[in-house]
Amino acid sequence: MKKLLALFLLAGIFTFGITSTVSAQDDMDTTNTSDTTMMDVDSAGGDDSAAMAAPAEEDMVEDDSDAEMEAEDNLQYVIRDKFIEGDWRFMSPVLICLILGLAIALERIITLNLATTNTKKLLARVEDGLAAGGVDAAKEVTKGTRGPVASIFTQGLMRIDEGIDMVEKSIVSYGSVEMGRLERGLVWVSLFISLAPMLGFMGTVIGMIGAFDSIEAAGDISPQVVASGIKIALLTTVAGLIVGIILQIFYNYLVSKVDALVNQMEDASISLVDLLVRHQNSGK
User: Fold this and answer.
1) Structure confidence by residue, pLDDT tens digits, 175-185
2) Is 234 exposed, middle or buried (0-12, 13-18, 19+ CB in 10 A)?
3) Residue ranges of the domains in the chain?
């Protein structure tokens, strides 16, 4: 799963880099096209050329206006512009928190979904194995099944010769180990949930300090003097809160998934103990 986590991180970084590069290239192409058109219009001569250039210029202006409207409506361009306006020095740490948090959350979601086991079907197979080939056959079934429930079953079956009490203790002890594995990585998601808003608030404080420095330098309190600093302050705050909200949703899903798996392990463990007691009683 470490390779999977690294893959998510690289995908996020490359996606952001490619998006920024393409956006910058589009802006350069648009600027170059406009400059070339203006040069062609200026170089045209005569009354006929001027008459032909005027409609072309109007069409170009309309096309540029349509392109600008489409760019403004495009969420990608809006996010890019707001990222630049918020100052990359303050917005980049918040973006890093989002990328790392999402990478860990997605890795955990995949891992937890793969850890889900159909306990009823597994218990039926274990019971059939006990009836057909004894404990060894049941252990082969659990070892060939993926997930924490099957691992707990394996540990319990390995202690069957030591009595039911040892089976229960083994299940409880190994269940704690499996629960720790399921919760691995959640602490980092929780960290980024707390860290992203704090970084946003830090940008807010620094932006307000810059605004007051501008007031002190200008000796004036006009809106134009403080607008830049206040805008940075508000944008960094919004970015931090958005990242925190997104990661909080993933975190709550992961916690609920872990709780469901833990309850599944507990219920399955009780069922396994009852199954082993019945097996021993039938053997007597």
Assistant:
1) 888 888 888 88
2) middle
3) 2-85, 92-284
